[in-house]
Amino acid sequence: MTNTKNSTSITRNLVPDNKRTKIVADLFGIDFPQRIEPLVFAVAEEMGHEYRGGLWKFFALSNGGFYMSPEFDGLFTVSCENGFSGSMSADALGIAACIYAYSYISFTDNQALAELCARHFHLLRDYALDHPEERGIMAAID
């Protein structure tokens, strides 16, 4: 995908199952399973009416970012506290849920984790700006 805001191509790569633990440990350390992943799941359940748990895909971005999305073939009916409602693919829901979680955690008292999540917020947002469902993603996180 091309990011028109930065004129840089940001691509995603599916993280193979056997490398998932290493990728998230390298990026987030122990905070991934303890804080980030559970919050992403909770946000997805709150936003996506059809989401009821399940397997997720992990994606590493060429700009150093990361996101995950539920394995789901249909569209999610999404509604958010900010008034947004609409339909989203699993990929878009995952991006929105990760951006929301990164933003939320960026306001934590743990300065190192806050800075890390703020960085990942911006890396993923840059990728999302050229996503086919950019409008819905941005409306959901606004």
Write the layout of secondary structure elements.
Blueprint: E1 2-3, E2 8-9, E3 12-14, H1 20-28, H2 31-47, E4 56-61, E5 66-70, E6 76-79, E7 85-88, H3 90-105, H4 111-128, H5 134-141
Antiparallel strand pairs: 1-2, 3-4, 4-5, 6-7
- Total domain count: 1
Low-confidence stretches: 1-6
Proportion of β residues? 15-25%
Q: Could you give the distance between the termini? A: 22 Å
Number of strands: 7
Percent helix, as a range, is 40-55%
Q: Kindly name the structural category.
A: alpha+beta
Gyration radius (Cα, Å) is 14 Å
| Shape, per Cα inertia axes | globular
| Order of H and E elements | EEEHHEEEEHHH
Q: Main sheet: which strands, in order across? A: 3-4-5
CATH architecture: 2-Layer Sandwich
Describe, in plain words, how this protein is organized in 3D:
The radius of gyration is 14 Å and the shape is globular. It starts with a strand and ends with a helix. The chain has helices spanning 20-28, 31-47, 90-105, 111-128, 134-141; strands at residues 2-3, 8-9, 12-14, 56-61, 66-70, 76-79, 85-88. The protein is α+β, with helices and mostly antiparallel strands and 142 residues long. It has one domain (2-141): Antirestriction protein (Alpha-Beta Plaits, 2-Layer Sandwich), CATH 3.30.70.3580. It contains 5 helices and 7 strands. Strand 4 and strand 5 (66-70) form a beta hairpin. The model is unreliable at 1-6 (pLDDT under 50).
